[in-house]
Amino acid sequence: MTKTCLITGASRGIGRALALEMAKQDYMLALTARDKSTLESVRDEIVSVLPSAHVEIHALDVTNYEQVFKVVEAVDASLGGLDLVVANAGISVSRPVGVGAFEEHKSVIETNVLGLMATAEAIIPTFKERNQGQFVAISSVAAFRGLPKHSSYCASKVAVKSYMEALSVELIGTKVKTTTLFPGYIDTDINRHMASRPFLVPVEEGAKEILNLIQKEIKSSTVPRKPWSVVSQLMKAVPESVLAKMS
Asked: Where is the chain membrane-spanning (predicted)?
């Protein structure tokens, strides 16, 4: 049976690559992002390779919280019921604390945390009513250790981790699934400015692994699972002096 999926932040990076991979597996897709023209390019790219693919697009800034509810409701109706929602929209800022970048840091929290929460609030009642569905949150290995110059990004990903843990408990007794994924260094714009990107994998490879974990309904996993399942734990033991030198 063909499944339906909404992906936020689908115009580039992991969201775009995941949309391409899911289209190959016959998912009916609704893609959202702030830039509609870029979304159109993603849709056209998919349809050029897979003419029969069902891809609809919606311009959406997930910090426009009221609009999140409206778009999710519209997509659920147009696709005949959502099976899967991937809350992927996210931004990052590489600025130290105390250099006048509060507004930038605030935007990270509003997008990565409140945007995801709005997305969850918009779809979870429907999933619970139908007693089915899967909500996927894209966190980061940055959730496992605060990194210099990325304070707000790390904080946002910790928040996503805790939020999803709470949501998972709340859904016990239902058939609604949650999946929280913690990508390592997937080759995307969000990390290309960094001097060091250990264990870097191409975005296409990362997207394939993400889809595999989603389809297996894994509750929580790093991406890729190895070596990050081990490295993410070792990160907690790295001395602050070493982190300072790395920055």
From this structure: none
